[in-house]
Amino acid sequence: MNKMKLLVDDRWFGPTGIGRFASEIIQRVPPGNTVDYLSKTWAIKNPLSPLLLGIAVNRKAPDLFWSPGFMPPMNCKIPYIVTMHDLIHIKYGSKHQIFYYNNVIRPLLRKSACVLTVSEYSRGAILDWSQLPHNKVITVYNGISKGYTTVGPKFDPGYNYILYVGNKRQNKNLKRLLNAYANSRLPDDIKLVLTGEATSELSELISYLNISSRTVFLGYVPEKDLPSVYRGATALILVALHEGFGIPIIEAMACGTPVLAANSGALPEISENATLLVDPYNLDEISFGIEKIVNDSSLRKELVSSGLKRARKFSWDTTASRAWKIFISAVQ
Prior knowledge:
- By secondary structure, this protein is of the alpha/beta class.
- It has two domains: 5-143 and 315-330, Glycogen Phosphorylase B (Rossmann fold); 160-311, Rossmann fold (3-Layer(aba) Sandwich).
- It has 13 helices and twelve strands.
- The strands form two sheets. The chain has a six-stranded parallel β-sheet with strand order 2-1-3-4-5-6, sandwiched between helices. It has a six-stranded parallel β-sheet with strand order 9-8-7-10-11-12, sandwiched between helices.
- The chain starts with a strand and ends with a helix.
């Protein structure tokens, strides 16, 4: 079968890494293939989600069902593929979440046509956890959208800034980032800018560290405005404890912004020597890294050059082409 009808769980669409991955692939449907959408509204984390999914997929009767996130269908008569970006819920989840993953999600993954993931790091972790055959877990890297280039406006808030882009989950290591920034010997006019809103916990820490005047939360930044925020930054800082990929580092690289990243998770693999790496558990090392990437202009120049070369390796066209070949081969 060279042409197929793909059913997608569109509950995953939205301004997240999972949503981006899904939408970029769906925007690039090869000629002759069609896409239908689940169009259901129950919560993704509803404990009955796999059962409800199975019923809905069987009724729709596509050639293949694709879950862009970690939720597979139960009692499904249709071949299905699941994308798992990482095992963050196993690493940082509650006892209930871990139990659910081990006893509900894992057995259903074994019945899938295959599992897609976004890095070799995540692939290894998923293989170890799931005990799936090696050929059933396939790496399909994320890409970079076309707006992320060195050409275009730069966000200019009237001060220099280092930048964090992402959510506020535990694995992002924001408490250490804030402490390291507070401890670093940077001029007061270099602020720490973060996308999104501050949590009450982070606000309390910022107040305690006496960096309220030097820490700025931008709120929600629309996709179209993100490249200018990257371009305006002195550096991007991503010292997460665990990342399945780390899209902000390749977006920053593509915009010509040097990157300080953690030497953990998938970040060394994705950056491939084009970032300054630090131990995300070592506060002093993070502080020193921040000082170095801000103060060492020759290092920044070197990182910009290597980052631009590395960023060219990631393309949504390549990602989508690889994913669609896998989708089609799953029903042949």
